[in-house]
Amino acid sequence: MEIQETIVNKVAQSGLVTVDLGNFAPLGERVVYDIKDNLFHGLILKEKDFREFVKLHDWQQFEGKYVAITCSADAIVPTWAYMLLANRLEPYAKEIVFGDLAVLETLLYEKVLEKLDMEQYRDQRVVVKGCGDIQIPESAFVKFTTMLSKVAKSIMYGEPCSTVPVFKRKV
Question: Which of 51, 79, 137, 157 is the most exposed place for a label (fewest CB within 10 A)?
Answer without folding.
Answer: 79
